[in-house]
Amino acid sequence: MKVDYHVHLEEGPYSIEWLARTGKALSFFSDDRGHTYEWMESMADKLNSRIKEGCFSTEWLDLYLERAGRLGLKEVGIVDHLYRFSDAGEYYRKHIYLQNDKLGKMQQKWLDQVAVMPSMEQFVEFIQSQKMKWEKHGIKLKLGLEADFFPNGEAELAGIINQQPWDYVIGSVHFIDGWGFDNPETMDKFEREDLIALYGTHAAHICQAIESGLFDIIAHLDNLKVFSYRPDEGLLEKYYEKVAVTLKKYGVASEINTGLSYRYPIKEACPSPKYLQKLAEQKIPVTLSSDAHYPDDLGTNLDMATDLLRKNGYENISIF
């Protein structure tokens, strides 16, 4: 069965690049003939409508439905990043490094730019209201949340997650000691780090996330490689194995997430083939995820991900 369980409707920061990428997505679904003045006017109107209506609109979500139908997907999970909601503002301000220096100011700016949604309730109500429409098209629409794990933040995070009736919750690690390592503006920090130790810390955080009992799925297990800062994987296998064993012990699933393979310099899905071997050895349940942030990216490289699973002995894909 073809599924995509890690799909976003929007992501900041909001910039000229964001406008261009959103316009590209709208154009992908347009039958208008391009490169004419009339086409440009039409696209400007569509982009203006998209901005005014926001991402929680039937017009925008219907593009995901159209794409899912074209691809033959049977289940699609729409998630949003927890940091986008005001409900979680205090949680993130407590755990992200926001001191009055270069890194802190940069991350404060980023948080101000992306934390734009008033409440989780709006997102939840919107997705729930669309499930029947998707069902009529033969596709199950699932409601999910992607929440960042921070050590010692478990109780606070549980209180936030439990406010809403999620179909599943994805746990992710995007921060180490408050540093958002997948932000290209902070990439230079990798140059000053002991990479093997950094990967060890990242793996330890992932294991803590698994042990917390808060998550159904742990996302992109080796996203630390995002900008190609990765030692020889032979030096990392002990971390891969530790994570796999911990997933097995606590009965938590993971994913093949293709997002890095088409959106970031590393050009490789998460987990790497070597990492996936460790998951397969432990028979860890795995689902499929494109990590799409636009409707035209839905399902990207999932055939490749399916082939990787088959080569590692997987016969089933986990659903929630």
UniProtKB/TrEMBL annotation:
Molecular function as annotated in GO: histidinol-phosphatase activity
Pathway: Amino-acid biosynthesis; L-histidine biosynthesis; L-histidine from 5-phospho-alpha-D-ribose 1-diphosphate: step 8/9
Keyword field: Amino-acid biosynthesis, Histidine biosynthesis, Hydrolase
UniProt domain PHP: residue ranges: 61-258
The keyword Acetylation is assigned to this record: no
GO CC terms in record: cytoplasm
Top class in the EC scheme: hydrolase
Recorded catalytic activity of this chain's protein: L-histidinol phosphate + H2O = L-histidinol + phosphate
Family matches, as InterPro entries: Histidinol_P_phosphatase_HisJ (IPR010140), PHP_dom (IPR004013), Pol/histidinol_Pase-like (IPR016195)
Superkingdom, taxonomy of origin: Bacteria
EC code: 3.1.3.15
SUPFAM superfamilies per the UniProt record, alphabetical: PHP domain-like (SSF89550)
Keyword Nucleus (UniProt): no
GO biological process, one term: L-histidine biosynthetic process
Family: Belongs to the PHP hydrolase family. HisK subfamily.
This protein's name: Histidinol-phosphatase
Organism field: Candidatus Salinicoccus stercoripullorum
